[in-house]
Amino acid sequence: MDVFEAIRNRRSIRQYKPDPIDNKTVEKVLEAAHWAPSWGNQQCWRFVIVRDPGIKSEIADTLNKITVDNELVENAAASSIRQAPALIVFCAEKTKAGYGVDGTPQNDKGEYWYMFDIALAMQNLSLAAHALGLGTVIVGGFNIGKVEKILGVPAGCTVVTMTPLGVPDQKGQVSPRKQLSEVIIKNKFS
Ligand SMILES: Cc1cc2nc3c(=O)[nH]c(=O)nc-3n(C[C@H](O)[C@H](O)[C@H](O)COP(=O)(O)O)c2cc1C
Question: Which residue has its alpha carbon closest to ligand 1 atom 2?
Answer without folding.
Answer: 140
